[in-house]
Each structure stands twice: as structure tokens, then as C-alpha cells.
Design a protein that fits this description.
By secondary structure, the protein is an all-alpha fold. The chain has one domain. 37% of the residues are buried.
Amino acid sequence: MSPRPKHFYSLDNLRGVAALMVVVYHWSNFFYDRRSEFHGDPQQLPLYPILWPVYEQGLMAVDLFFCLSGFIFFWLYSRRIAEQRVSFKQFGCLRFSRLYPLHFVTLLLAAAATYAIRHLDGSYWGDSGYNDWHHFILQIFFISNWGWEQGFSFNGPIWSVSVEVWLYLMFFCLCRLKLTHWKLLLGYGAVGLMFTENGAFAVGKGILGFFMGGLAFKLFDKIQNENRRVQIKFIVPALIAMWIFFPMNFQMNLVYRALCHVTTSPNDYGIGGTIVFFTTYSYDFLLFPATIILLALWETQRGTLGKRLSFLGDISYSSYLLHFPMQLGIIILAIKCGWSKTLFSNPAIMLAFFLVLIATSLASHRWFEKPAQHWLRKKLLPPDRPA
């Protein structure tokens, strides 16, 4: 059996790339207010002919987040939790110290920026939705998208992290009860699909992606345990073809909807319904798990992949949470300086934003998140149970 890497750099970097894809997807926030939501010519978005798959499907990057989390958490914790080598307190403290400090800071930044925009402009330009005391309290306790909300609030992208917190609780309980057979994981994914199709989009997507990631780990682990030598060179071209095909495949979904007036959850279970279903969920069931397994096998068989780009993984959480408050800050400047929204169609402005975001995220990770994480773990974890 090939030795398993102590760290999957490629998966961390993939998470970093996914975070930056979400930032591109959210670029349309600069063109939004409640008086004139962005429904115009998408060509005004910078580099649209090149970045159109991300502008159109960038939210799929959050599905990739969930799938990556499932794989990594099953890899790191499932056996240790089942064998009671990791307590609930330890597991909870590890996740709290990693996630909460930056969440709290960005929540305050988003709240202050939203208030300033309302005061300056009154148009809710960039406003993420229901920014009131009820939703602020939900955000404080990391439960902003557990079903008690009316919609997005404050730092809108936190919705997926809130769902992840719920998934962590579910994951710990299932591992402790040893209910993690691959057939059960497939069943949990089916439950997530059912939730997604019946209105519980956020939680459903989270469950589906997380347990498909867990299932991907089970397959990877089986290959490892049976010492199978997978011919990666034959898999790579197929996976590249899938990444090229799937954006085109999504267009087939859109065309079918337009021509046949199929709703988001069609009642047609014939050919049309199959097309819509496959093009909607093929990422979750096939593309993302296959990509993760391939990258994990590559690092297992051929050594580390992407170690030099490891900073992308380091800043994935930072860039994901910081980009929206940064956008709000720029919107405040735009209002005060009288800038036109057409400014944000300039690719140079987008490039400058990304450079500042990456620099800020690196600084946040090194000088805020890691020290805060270390301090909290030192205070919360017993000295004989190191993180």
C-alpha cells in the first residue's frame, strides 16, 4: 500500500481556487441595488467571453467546497472519532478556533458597511438582504442558514460556512455511532438531494456535497487498502474532457429550459426531466468527487502536487469571507466619489481588486487567524490533548 500523504496540497489549492471563483461569481454585486437588480447584458462583466462559465456557474464552487470538506473530514477524523480518540469538545474547539474569529470580524465589518451605504445612498446598493437584529443574532451564533432566517444577511457568503457547522455536528454523531458505511453515505447524499429539490437549498446542497466527498474518500481509501495501482495517466485526459464538457453541458440545460419552459424542479420524469436533472447534479455526483479522488491518488503515488501554491489553500477561508466586506467598502467609496458602475466593467479594476484581496487574505491568515486560533486552542483544549 502506498503511504498516504500527511497533507493533500492539491486539495487545499483546489479549495483556494474555488474561493476565488466565488469572488468572480460575486462580481455582479457591483452592479446591484434593489432599484435595478443586474439583469443587463452580461458582456459588461469584465472578461465575460473568457470567464463566462464562472459568471454563470460560479455558485457550483460552493458545492465543490462541501465535497472537499467531506473528503478531508472523513480522511482526518472519521476513524479517530469512531475510536473515541477525538472527543466532541476537542472537535468542536478545533473547528470553532479555525472559523469563528474571522467570521466575527467580517460580520462586524459587513454590518458597519451596510449601515453606511444605507445612510449615504438609501438604495441598498450591495445590500445582501435581511440585515436586522434577528439575523445578526443568528449570525453571531453561526446558525444564519439553519432555517430560521428569511434570507441572506450581512456577510452573505457566510451561509455556506453556517451550513458546514451544521454538517460538522451531523458528521461527528454519525462517526461516533459508526453509521458511515458507503451505502449509508450514498443515502445521506440522496436525502440532501431531496432537500435541495424541495426548497431547503442551502442545507440540501451541503448534505449532498459533503457526503459525496465522504463517499469519494471511501473509494480512495479502498484503492489504498487494496494496494491498487491506478493508471493516472489514462484518467487525466478523461477528467480534463469532463471539465471542458460540463460547462457546455450546463448550456444544454439552459437551452432546454428556455425551449420547453421547464421549471427548476420539473415534474417531467421523461427525457426532458432527465436532461435537467443530469445537467444540474452531474457536478455533485460525478465531476467533483472524481477530481478529488484523482488529485489524492496523484499525491499518493507521485508525491506532493502544488506545494509551491500552498498559499492558495491558506487563504481560501480568508478570501471567501473578506471579499464581500471589501466590495461593500468599495461601494461606499463609489457612492462618495460619484463613480459610475461601468467602472467595474474594467478588467484592470478586477485585477487590482484580486491583488488587494489576496494580499489582505495573506495578512489576515498570518497575523490574525493563526494567532487567534493558537490562543483559543491553548485556552480551550486540555494540555494533554494537543490540536
